[in-house]
Design goal:
Strands 1-2-3-4 form a 4-stranded antiparallel sheet, covered by helices on one side. It has 1 helix and 4 strands. The longest helix is centred in the last third of the chain and has 13 residues.
Length: about 90
């Protein structure tokens, strides 16, 4: 399982850190005939938000987490993710 925890640290102070969200990407281990691919459940703050049916393991953890983040839904305050050729939001 991969866990991504998003925290806010007011003024960089660890003692006042607060967790904003926790994203879990859980390997379902139900792909015995395709060892180079994985299937995953995605949970946000303990609530299942979706499944990733096929992730090529050679792409690495970054691509898996990226796909899981897209399942979470729209970003707060109407913000959108930047396109690959335009990094501004």
């Amino acid at each position: 399982m991969l866990r991504v925890t998003v925290q806010i640290l007011p003024h960089g102070d660890e003692e006042t850190a607060r967790t904003l969200a926790t994203l879990d990407v859980i390997n379902t281990v139900d792909h015995p005939k395709r060892p180079h691919y994985g299937r995953y459940r995605v949970r946000l703050d303990g609530q299942e938000v979706g499944r990733i049916a096929s992730h090529k393991r050679s792409r690495g953890w970054y691509w898996l987490v990226r796909r899981a983040l897209w399942m979470v839904g729209p970003l707060p305050e109407g913000r959108v993710l930047a396109k690959a050729n335009n990094r501004s939001t």
